[in-house]
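Morning F.,

Quick status update on the modeling queue. The single chain you submitted on Monday has been processed. Sequence for confirmation:
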Amino acid sequence: MRLFKTIAGLRCYLNQYHRQTIGLVPSMGALHSGHLSLIQQARRENAIAVVSIFVNPLQFAPSEDLQRYPRTLEQDQELCEQAGVDVIFAPSAEEMGADSNTITAIIPPATMTAGLCGKSRPGHFQGVATIVTKLLNVVQPTTAYFGQKDAQQVAIIKRLLADLNLPVNIVVCPIVRETSGLALSSRNQYLNSVQQQQATVLYRALQQAEKAFQQGERQTEVLIAEVKAELAKETAVQLEYIELVHPDSLMPMNEVNQVGLLAIAARLDNTRLIDNVLLRERRPIVAIDGPAGAGKSTVARQVAQNLGLLYLDTGAMYRAVTWLVLESGIEITDEPAIAELVSQSEIQLIASDRPESPVQVTIQGRDVTEAIRSLAVTAQVSAIAAQPAVRQALLRQQQRWGEKGGIVAEGRDIGTCVFPDAEVKIFLTASVQERARRRHQELTIKHGTAPSVEDIAQAIADRDRQDSTRAIAPLQQAPDAIELITDGLTIPEVIARIVSIYQGNRE
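Structure tokens below.
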């Protein structure tokens, strides 16, 4: 692991890896298990994992705890090394230009900073946005990782990236909590044992509102009243705000339609704590990841039919784009032209009334359900799907499908990258030998002959290695996915198990 305190040193190091994926975890140090969850995900998903440690003076008001804020670089280094971090970037305020009042500032929309924490911390999010932008420019990561606990910060950074067209993916990781429910925070160490117990009322209060939401309550006034009633039981906790806003725009909501962010801030003596929950009204998403040849598409289609959900045929989406490229006469190697084309394309999937029929696929309003199965499309779809612009465009479209839920989707990275918040995640797999046996049987039935099982097994093992080491979205099992090994199981048995998992999740 390397430690850099200058931009020049960090850039010189990272320039050696400019063709590899880089994951950045921005932090102010005093690392805890919440940070480590971000670091571990960055480590899993990237060739290079970078952690920045910088107590940003621009985000502290004169009356706030800048000097008091914990600084534990030596301990942080040990934790990062144990977690497999490649680089720590720990610059000074002077190095980041944050010691000057004349620094060029990034000013987020006032509508996003006026509420929630912005009410009591004027200038805070301008300071955050300015330094995060500088960090992204210095590190130039493929992906940056943030925690859901700082939900207002996350929404502002997402908007910043969109408005400034910065080519960085954002991954938002779930809140990590103590067994008591208290959200992990570097400021928790300011609390004594009694105060830590008192602080757990924040999450209990949010849970009361979440329970009411699950029982059908949608009105903001009622949900906030549930929170306040629970908070009233702990007089040591002084409420600063409790608000229900849209998680992306941060605009207040009178009622929850699809999704709302219920956020809270409170004080215990001089310590300020925040927490939140997402209230989401959508039908569950079933995400089925796994290696090639595990039967994902067959199983996903039948699970969707069984549960009355839409089968999101992601493979058909890539085939539709490939068909459009060929139809448009664009060379397969002309990535800029393909990027231009796919960025203006809209795909629709329509479930068939007949279970045995494929999902109807349209692109630019043209029905291509049959055309995308042609030999010409089959021959080129892998090359098209490997292009980053194609993947990003279809990823956005797939995630729009997921906003209302009610879908079953499968792929190499459906549960890890496309729908990381899916309610049901299955990692469908089988031994290489079993997948080879199935493939041999399938080819023999279809063509009357097939390569040997051993040759097929070798090809599958090679494909697994390739998929597991891809620079973008490698094959891996999500930490919260249920592994389902299908050796010795029939397709109906596999489907029955997934349906049982889904139904158990709904109860």
